[in-house]
Amino acid sequence: MVLREIFLLSVAMTAVTVNACPSACKCTVSLYGEMVVSCGGMGLTEIPEDIPRRAVYLILKDNNITKVTSYSFKGLKNLQGIDLSNNKISHISSAALRHQGHLDDIDLSMNKLTSVSQKLFDFPISSAKTQGRRFFVYLANNPWGCDCRMAWLAEELASGSKTFGDRHLDCTTPASLAGLSLSEVPPTSFVCSGRAIIPNGDGIVATPEEPTSFPVAYRVAVVFGCITGLVTILLLVLTAMLYQKRRIKLGSKYELRWNKHPEFV
């Protein structure tokens, strides 16, 4: 993201300045026709609403933005890069990227995020796969809460995913896991006590889709244990039935012998 930003800004030196641009931003069109909207370091507390729809790269780093809503990028379907690094974002709607079918990367590093929904990245990831592109997410240096809400990301990292950077993804809470990297936390430790509350970027308080969600490996182990237990019970029942059948058979044989030769009994 940084290298591409430098390249685009250097190309933009000979580009056309766009008049219809948010007052706190600078909009330029590169020689390749790609619009760069740069609003970095302007003290913004929210994402501007009047960003041109032809924007391809949106730079919002080094501001005081606190949330990303489901309508923050409404109509911006051409975005290929979003830089939201070094803000104060603590809440981000799981629907914030639902229209970003051309997005190559988004930088959410150095914010205040304690959790993020897997659903947030579903559409950009599926679109990238369909188009044969790579989609990358920067999540470093956030105060992550390593509970059930982040189990999905730990699973992604364990599977060798190339979508999420694995550097500087450290737990802040709970205290027992503080300082550990997300990839170092045992799968069974990603738990929530009671019903975890997730305030999203739209100001709506919601519960996680799976309040007690565990990684696939853990769920498979539980299912395997249940199946093993059932098989063991069935074997015990079958053994008891065979034993009872054998007792009945021996009893019948003994009774028959007594009837024929009572003097030997």
Describe what you observe in this structure.
- By secondary structure, this protein is α/β, with parallel strands linked by helices.
- It has helices spanning 2-11, 122-130, 151-158, 216-260; strands at residues 16-17, 26-29, 35-38, 55-59, 67-68, 81-83, 91-92, 105-107, 136-138, 144-145, 171-173, 198-199, 205-206.
- The chain is built from 4 helices and 13 strands.
- Strand 1 and strand 2 (26-29) form a beta hairpin.
- Proportion of strand residues: 5-15%
CA gyration radius, whole angstroms: 30 Å
Average pLDDT = 81
**Lateral strand order in the biggest sheet:** 1-2-3-4-6-8-9
Helix content: 25-40%
Alpha carbon gap, first and last residue: 96 Å
What is the makeup of the main sheet? 7 strands, mixed
How does the overall form come out from the CA principal axes?
Answer: elongated
Structural class: alpha/beta
The SSE order reads HEEEEEEEEHEEHEEEH
Total number of helices: 4
Q: How many runs of DSSP E, i.e. beta strands? A: 13
Report the uncertain regions.
Answer: 10-15, 203-214
List the helices and strands and how they pair.
Blueprint lengths: L1 H10 L4 E2 L8 E4 L5 E4 L16 E5 L7 E2 L12 E3 L7 E2 L12 E3 L14 H9 L5 E3 L5 E2 L5 H8 L12 E3 L24 E2 L5 E2 L9 H45 L5
Parallel strand pairs: 3-4, 4-6, 5-7, 6-8, 8-9, 10-11
Antiparallel strand pairs: 1-2, 2-3, 12-13
Pfam family, one: LRR_8
Keywords: Glycoprotein, Leucine-rich repeat, Membrane, Repeat, Signal, Transmembrane, Transmembrane helix
InterPro entries: Cys-rich_flank_reg_C, Leu-rich_rpt, Leu-rich_rpt_typical-subtyp, LRR_dom_sf, LRRNT
